[in-house]
Specification:
Layout (H helix, E strand, L loop, with lengths): L1 E8 L3 H12 L4 E4 L39 H4 L9 E3 L4 E4 L5 E4 L3 H9 L3 H25 L6 H6 L3 H10 L3 H12 L2 H8 L3 H11 L15 H8 L4 E3 L4 H13 L3 E3 L4 E7 L2 E7 L4 E10 L3 H7 L3 H7 L3 H8 L5 E10 L18 E4 L3 H12 L10 E4 L1 H4 L9 E10 L17 H18 L3 H4 E7 L1 H8 L35 E3 L13 H14 L1 H23 L1
Parallel strand pairs: 1-2, 1-10, 2-7, 4-12, 10-16
Antiparallel strand pairs: 3-6, 4-5, 8-9, 9-10, 11-14, 11-15, 12-13, 13-14
The structure holds flavin-adenine dinucleotide (FAD).
Flavin-adenine dinucleotide (FAD) binds next to α1, β11 and α19.
């Protein structure tokens, strides 16, 4: 039996980030990954080695934004371990059915100039919209980069610039109340309030809905940050694909003595006297942990699927029931289409320029179009009558991902995990079959071909993954790509539940990280870094509190000196 200080369940990017910080602090770490390659939602693979050899695909994440809101890349010096980021510019292209289009550059001014060609008033409003949500983002950065219940850590992350942004958003009571009202509003309310033209409203609603909510849902207005962040810090992709981030983290973890074992599905967390002491994998091998077990899979999977109910009940008799009933899932997942192409799509009706394809492309004809794309999923319906989608041609920015002159196409189409009326049929009883997923993919590609007529003849091979298959492959519960919905009621100190929100659990030595913890899904590494911080704090409370206090006083002193 192997014994280490810490065993981590899963080897997605958050688990690897967490491991790196623990290894740097001198602990021995073992990561156990169920799949044959590490990375989870952050891999790059040759998905069709027979039909399309040499074409590399990102089966899940492609655009990295949140990771640039924190210090991880610099602190872990990931460039030394092979990571190179390529920034997209332009960042978003959204063709409108009437021939106009939204083209966002990294520069707000250049974007306004694009909008100005069709609507001077919306161009002016756009600058205001982005300025507001950039200030909100700046205020959120310190919160994202600290455990949610640690006031000292959060305040230590505020520097002068962020304090200025905070005070610009609040002020007299009416201003504070108006700001709170904005946070309660929906993305639809927000874009309707700011803009006149659908060709601007639709893409902004589509970006806001990336938080996994329909734009009409109250509190989805916070999704305004999704457009603002594409200007600053910007959108980047690792050279060679998202898997290059995982590879850099693996290089670092291994160089520090960390061990990553693949094809090791954890099926039980071992608890002794209310303390997590190790795990058991599918083939019954046990791994012991002296200091703790960290789960990078979400709380529902951990407590309800990998633990004896008696162990959980002994620690908190209400927890299983609360996990079942309080954590909601809106049934939204993704049908993923990857294609190998002989040539890149051409947006003939929109004065095609290759630069449109350097970032991502949205097919979002109107706010209502985006609304249906999300509400249908919640109702168990497939929104494929008139598909809305998010796509990219990754090889335009990084030609190394396909043979010379060839391209790849990445399409994300929101689809329900459980199809209503098809319960008990198809894969895992979800209703998804091979025939159905290909039928839906055909409709999605047909819609895209309305905009890019050369598409259909350029497809060399395609791989379609249904929500049920995605759930099986990465282990996402009900195909939820953020582990849990990113709705307001499940964020910050509510994620996943108030009693589990600071990366700790009622079982001693058992910690939670990953997308199902604060600040949530996406490629950020923040849950991993924050969890490592809490773990280290538990080992040396006095030392770590003094270090946090030092950081807090340093940032306060810097702010005061800068003011003077
Ligand atoms: C199609 C798609 C597109 C996306 N696009 C983007 C994007 O462009 N930008 C972005 O920021 N985010 C995107 N996301 C979301 C992002 O990929 C995830 O939120 C992120 O990868 C979560 O990382 P994680 O490390 O927390 O968890 P995961 O990546 O889920 O890692 C958890 C790991 O645990 C393993 N595991 C599960 N169960 C067990 C077990 N019992 N034993 C051992 N190992 C286990 C899994 O195999 C996995 O490797 C996308 C997701 C999908 C599905």
């Amino acid at each position: 039996m192997q014994t280490v200080d810490v065993v981590i369940i899963g080897a997605g990017h958050n688990a690897l980030v967490c491991a790196a910080y623990l290894l740097k602090a001198g602990y021995t770490v073992l990561l156990l990954e169920k799949n044959s390659i590490p990375g989870g939602g952050a891999t790059t693979e040759e998905r069709m080695p027979q039909e399309a050899a040499g074409f590399k695909f990102n089966p899940c994440a492609i655009d990295h934004i949140f990771i640039h809101l924190g210090p991880i890349v610099q602190e872990l010096e990931l460039n030394k371990y092979g990571l190179e980021y390529l920034f997209c510019d332009p960042t978003i292209f959204c063709p409108h059915p009437d021939g106009r289009y939204y083209l966002a550059h990294r520069s707000v001014e250049k974007t306004c100039a694009e909008i100005q060609r069709y609507s001077p008033s919306d161009a002016k409003q756009y600058a205001e919209f982005i300025d507001f949500w950039q200030r909100v983002t700046n205020v959120l950065i310190p919160v994202f980069n600290a455990p949610p219940k640690s006031l000292l850590d959060v305040s230590g992350n505020f520097d002068l610039g962020k304090l200025k942004d905070l005070f610009s958003l609040i002020g007299p009571p009416d201003k504070v109340l108006d700001f709170i009202r904005t946070l309660f509003s929906s993305a639809k309310d927000l874009v309707e309030g700011y803009f006149e033209e659908e060709f601007v409203k639709a893409p902004l609603a589509r970006l806001a809905a990336e938080m996994s909510m329909p734009p009409s849902q109250k509190t989805s207005g916070i999704g305004g940050i999704m457009a603002a962040m594409r200007h600053n810090p910007g959108v980047a992709r690792p050279k060679g694909g998202t898997g290059a981030l995982t590879q850099a983290l693996l290089n670092l973890v291994k160089s520090l003595g960390g061990v990553v074992l693949t094809d090791q599905q954890v099926d039980k967390v071992l608890v002794d006297n209310n303390r997590a002491v190790g795990v058991r994998v599918k083939d019954k091998t046990e791994y012991r942990a002296n200091r703790g077990v960290i789960s990078s899979i979400d709380a529902k999977r951990l407590f309800l699927h990998l633990m004896d109910a008696s162990d959980v009940d002994a620690a908190d008799p209400n927890l299983c029931d609360r996990l079942e009933k309080r954590i909601v899932d809106n049934n939204e997942s993704i049908l993923k289409i990857d294609c190998a192409l002989s040539e890149a799509p051409r947006f003939e009706h929109h004065n095609h320029k290759d630069e449109y394809l350097l970032g991502s492309v949205l097919i979002a004809d109107s706010v209502d179009h985006v609304e249906v794309a999300h509400t249908d999923c919640q109702l168990g319906k497939i929104p494929d009558e008139n598909p809305s989608m998010f796509l990219a041609v990754p090889t335009m920015l990084d030609p190394s991902m396909a043979p010379d002159g060839k391209h790849t196409l990445w399409i994300e189409f929101f689809a329900p995990y459980q199809i209503k009326g098809a319960e008990g049929t198809g894969l895992k009883g979800t209703g998804w079959t091979d025939e159905l997923k290909h039928k839906v993919a055909e409709r999605v590609l047909n819609k895209l071909a309305d905009y890019a007529p050369n598409l259909k003849n350029s497809i060399i091979a395609r791989n379609v993954e249904s929500p049920a298959e995605l759930a099986e492959r990465v282990g996402f519960l009900k195909g939820n790509y953020y582990h849990l919905d990113m709705t307001f009621d499940q964020m910050v100190f509510f994620r996943p539940l108030p009693e589990l929100a600071n990366y700790t659990t009622p079982i001693e030595g058992l910690f939670l990280t990953g997308a199902g913890t604060h600040p949530g899904g996406a490629i950020s590494g923040m849950p991993g870094r924050n969890c490592a911080h809490v773990f280290l704090h538990k080992q040396h409370p006095v030392q770590e509190t003094l270090a946090d206090a030092g950081k807090f006083f340093k940032s306060t002193a810097q702010s005061i000196l800068n003011i003077q």
